[in-house]
Amino acid sequence: MTFRSASSNDKVMAYFDGTAKKIYLEVSASEGSACRLKIQETRNADIAPTWRTIRVLSQDELPFKGELELNPESRFVKIVPASVSGDVTLNAFRISDADGNFGPDFSGIADIIASDLRVSTTAGGIRVSGLAAGIRVNVYDIAGRTVASAVSDGSDTELALAKGGFYLVNAAGKTFKIRF
Fold it and tell me: Is 0.85 topped by the overall pTM?
């Protein structure tokens, strides 16, 4: 994910159920970029959550690769640019479980480029095309939990997903990041 403005639309948010110990981030910026990137957490995802700033990254700290501790009661993380000039890229974003083991990377939406395999969004989830019969498709949420799974019958495989999340789709040895 590349942040190009401080617009409220230009952010990454992740809800997780259960206890998370920390997050792992990799952030870089193009030459000449300036930024203030806020990493925040909250214990509730209610209508008006109270955000606590974990860290504010500035261009002097980029590139950044590191782990940040979370409040054990937190259930929601937000990464939002307070100010941006140029391109600031979130290269890796992982949330750990209670033991500190990290789930899959949810740094953004990858361009889906494959000769036969295609993943696209539908009104109710995703469609995976180009799979041979018998190939398993697994979809994981940001915490690494399996949220959908199916076995291809050789035609397009559709899986239902909850809106408003980032997902990893794994099939035929390839993994794609999607936002739905």
Answer: no
Look at residue 61 and give its three-state secondary structure: helix
Long-range contact set of residues 43-50: C-beta below 8 Å, sequence gap at least 24: 43/71, 43/73, 43/74, 43/75, 43/76, 44/75, 44/76, 45/15, 45/75, 45/76, 49/76
What pLDDT sits at residue 111?
Answer: 33
Q: CATH fold of 2-95, please?
A: Jelly Rolls (2.60.120)
List pLDDT tens digits, range 93-102: 888 888 888 8
CA pair distance 112, 178, nearest whole angstrom: 9
Q: How many CB atoms lie within 10 A of CB 27?
A: 24
* Domain ranges for the chain: 2-95, 118-179
pLDDT tens, residue by residue, 132-172: 778 889 898 877 788 999 988 888 899 999 888 888 888 87
Per-residue pLDDT, 3: 78
